[in-house]
Write a structure and sequence with these properties.
rod-shaped; 3 domains; Umud Fragment, subunit A; 5 helices
Length: 237
């Protein structure tokens, strides 16, 4: 293998390992931000990253998003929650499974209501096949964020896989282990090169020459031994 191929392989390996390291750092940030957030989702300042879990917002007009997308939303202040408009896509807490626990849901506002100073919003998914009826009115305390209109297709599913135990092991732990082993090997090789610097390195040509000289010396010794035996036999005669 020539030096160019070796150098190319080394560059590719380094790039891949650093990509996995960046992914590991990204997932660590998401994990810590989710734990630090009382809402239980990744939050960086007033921005949150949410993974779409269904196709309820996958409308025919193409303005929404679909399952597996990653949407970037703005975390709302109490004042901002009061000034939302029809057409805004908001993320809110609601008991989707009717199990007494509230989960995050993201739908579009279709109506704003205000009665006796109390503001509520009615939402509905863009996909009318999955969301045929409007949702129950939502109070301000259950609203978390409003969608900024930015999304990254498909990456939400990938992040969801990374957050699973299998995904974390396959995509984070194993590559990181490989990275540190690789760097350890490189460090050891570098140390050995420094130690051996200035010492004569035996090449394959040198090895062949040493073998040839050893064979010649052996044959020469064998020849001298045979000659000595012949001389001794002549003396006895």
């Amino acid at each position: 293998m020539n030096q160019t191929v070796k150098k190319t392989i080394k560059i590719v390996v380094n790039v891949l390992l650093w990509v996995f390291l960046a992914l590991a750092l990204f997932m660590t940030i998401l994990a810590f931000s989710a734990q630090a957030s009382n809402a239980g989702y990744p939050k960086l300042g007033d921005t949150c990253l949410l993974t779409v879990e269904s196709d309820s917002m996958n409308g025919q007009d193409g303005k929404g998003f679909k399952k597996g997308d990653l949407i970037i939303s703005h975390v709302l202040t109490d004042e901002e929650k009061q000034n939302l408009q029809v057409g805004d896509v908001i993320t809110f807490f609601v008991d989707l499974n009717f199990d007494g626990e509230k989960e995050l849901n993201t739908h579009r506002i279709i109506e704003r209501k205000e009665q006796d100073g109390v503001i509520t919003y009615v939402t509905q998914g863009d996909n009318r096949e999955m969301s045929a009826q409007p949702d129950a009115p939502i109070g301000l305390s259950d609203i978390e964020a409003v969608w900024t209109g930015k999304r990254i297709g498909g990456i939400g599913a990938f992040i969801g896989f990374l957050r699973s135990s299998t995904g974390f092991l396959v995509c984070i732990v194993l590559p990181l282990a490989a990275f540190f082993i690789y760097e350890l090997v490189v460090m050891i090789n570098t140390i050995n090169k420094i130690r051996n610097k200035g010492k004569k390195q035996i090449t394959k040509e040198d090895e062949e020459l040493i073998k040839q000289r050893a064979i010649e010396e052996y044959l020469a010794k064998q020849g001298n031994g045979d000659k000595a035996k012949e001389e001794s036999s002549d003396d006895n005669n």
